[in-house]
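Amino Acid Chain and Its Fold in Token Form
===========================================
Purpose: to set a sequence beside its fold so the mapping can be learned.
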Amino acid sequence: MVPAAARLLRRLHGRTPWPPLVCWSGCASALRGWLRLLAHKLRKEFAAESRAVVAELFAEMARRRYHALRAEHPHLPAPEVDPRAPALVMAALYQLALAPGDAWLWRSLGGPPRGAEWLRAARLLRPLNLEARWRELSVHLGEALIVATERLPARVPRARALLADMCFQLGERYGRQMRDLLDLPTETPVQNAIELLRGTEFLFRVNQRHSVGADEAARHGFIDGDACPWHPRPGWQAGHCGIFGSFQGGVCAVFGLRYRLMETIPKHGGDHCRVELSARPIPLRRSADGGPIDR
């Protein structure tokens, strides 16, 4: 990329808060991509049925989130009164009209909107402003992981390790792409990793209040913050932190760094979580909960 363009992109990337439309769209795109990748990773176990399996997981997650959404937005009809409402609201929320290739995700929700249903989907979502849509979607990634870890272990060997490895690989890919896109300097690997981690954290409303530190000479850094929007959800466990931490571990690996969860609210209590980055190699072996063994 032209250096001037890379510098401009880096300034924009580091200039949070980003507009709510960017955050809502970014969350929608990231969630659809995560679910597509999960279907791809499950092909070994389910072959052509992997999409159907993920569509079932998505439907369960959507039903849970629709129930939570109705508590905040009582204009939304009850599913027993309007059975199509959850599918329509989720289609509008996930910007499915811009990504029709992902319509298979709605298979277990009665299918995507058809014809005039698209207008009704837009009307149902209209009372939620852009920030409310972003805030809602930011919770879906954690809810999807909860459902996946509840439903997949009975059908997939080492399901949690599969999810952790998938997140690690996704983090590596994201880290390489953003490193090259932003033309990040090679002499500041710790700052680079923290910059990319904070970008994804902001998008999913993780550690909204936080402090960071980077010591390039010692190849050490940290992020200490007020955690994520997922840990209060029913079913969230410390192991889920390890699985999603694998994504950050993949990002850090691109810069030759190791990512460690030092404190998490589900495991240690309190009101904050802390991660540290160091130069030691990243372990590739996985524990039963999907995280690196020495994490």
